[in-house]
Amino acid sequence: MKRFGSFAAWIGDRSEGRMLEVFFVPTMGALHQGHAALVKEARRMADADALRPVEVVVSIFINPTQFNEPGDFMAYPATPEEDVALLAAAGADTVIFPSVDEMYPSGIPGTSDMVDFGALTSVMEGAMRPGHFDGVVSVVRSLFKKTQPTSAFFGEKDWQQLAIVQRLVELEFDTLDVVPVQTVRESSGLAMSSRNSRLSEADRKKASMLSAEMMKVARHARPRAVVGFAVERLERAGFEVEYLEVRHGLTLAEAPWEPGAMRVFAAVCLGGVRLIDNFPCGN
Ligand code: PAF
C-alpha cells in the first residue's frame, strides 16, 4: 500500500504511471472494522472486473468544519499507524493524509456554505448538529473533485449522511456511483463507531441496549406506536435520548407508512458519548 502526505503528492505519482480508475473511501481515521468493511467491499468490486484496473484510495482527514462542538473535534482520536495497518490488511492500494492547508488553502472557514436538501439536511442530525452537514458536503465535494472516483463507499450507519451524499452526487457528480455498505456491529449489537472507544467499560456494555431497543421497535407490527416505550426504557437506564423516530428511508420525512421503506433512527448520549444508529423496519 502506498502512503501520501497530500493529494498533490499522489497526483504527481499517478501522472508518472498508468492512470487507474479510482474507488474511493473517505474517512476521518480512528478506523475500525466498519471502515475495513468499506475498503474490503471496494477491493472486492475492484477485483471482480479484471478488465477495469482500479486503485482503491482511502483518505484520512479529520475535517474541522463538520464538528459543531469544538470539544468533540479536540477529542477525536488520531491513530495514523493503526489506521495504516488496518487499511493494508483490508486491501487498500493507497492512503492519503491531506493537511488542513491543502484542504482549506484560505484557512479553515468559520462556517461552510449552507446546504439545503430539504428534510435530508434539516431533520435529525441536521437539527441536532447545526452546520454539521454543511461541513460534510463541502469536504466530500472537495475530496471527490481531488480524487475523481468512479465509485465511492459510505457506511449505512451514517444513513442520513449517505442519503445526503447520494443527493450531492445526483446534483453534481453524475458519473459517480455511491456504494452503501452495511453497518458492522460488535457481538453485543452495538454499531461500530470511532466514538465507542470513549465509552467506559460499563457504558460499552450498557450501549448494546440501544440496538436492542431499536430492533424491538423496528420489528414491531406498529413501530410508531412503541417508540415512546423504547425511549422511556432507555432514559430509565441512563441514556439521554436526542431522538428516536420512524421515518421514510429515502426522503427521511415523517411520511405515512410505506411497507419496506421505513427505518428507525436514533441518537443518544451515554456517559457524554454521542451514539447514532438506524435499522430497517419489518426485518
Ligand atoms: O463519515 C465520515 O467519516 C466523514 O463524515 C466523511 C465522509 C469522511 C467526511 O469528512
Task: Provide structural commentary.
The structure is a single chain. With 283 residues, the protein is α/β, with parallel strands linked by helices. It has 2 domains: 2-181, Rossmann fold; 194-276, Pantoate-beta-alanine ligase, C-terminal domain (Pantoate--beta-alanine Ligase, Chain: A,domain 2). The protein contains 12 helices and 9 strands. The chain has helices spanning 7-16, 33-48, 70-75, 80-90, 100-103, 119-122, 125-128, 132-147, 159-172, 201-206, 208-219, 223-236; strands at residues 2-4, 21-27, 54-60, 94-96, 151-155, 177-181, 240-248, 262-270, 273-280. The chain starts with a strand and ends with a strand. The model has no long low-confidence stretch (mean pLDDT 96). The structure holds pantoate (PAF). Pantoate is lined by residues 26-28, 63, 66, 136, 139-140, 158, 161.
List keywords for this structure.
single chain, alpha/beta, Rossmann fold, Pantoate--beta-alanine Ligase, Chain: A,domain 2, six-stranded parallel β-sheet, three-stranded antiparallel β-sheet, globular, binds pantoate
What's the CATH H-level homologous superfamily of the largest domain?
HUPs
Strand order of the largest sheet: 1-4-3-2-5-6
Strand content: 15-25%
Bound molecules: pantoate
Largest sheet: 6 strands, parallel
The total count of helices amounts to 12
Which topology of the largest domain does CATH recognise? Rossmann fold
Write the layout of secondary structure elements.
Blueprint (H helix, E strand, L loop, with lengths): L1 E3 L2 H10 L4 E7 L5 H16 L5 E7 L9 H6 L4 H11 L3 E3 L3 H4 L15 H4 L2 H4 L3 H16 L3 E5 L3 H14 L4 E5 L19 H6 L1 H12 L3 H14 L3 E9 L13 E9 L2 E8 L3
Parallel strand pairs: 1-4, 2-3, 2-5, 3-4, 5-6
Antiparallel strand pairs: 7-8, 8-9
The structure holds pantoate.
Pantoate binds next to β2 and α8.
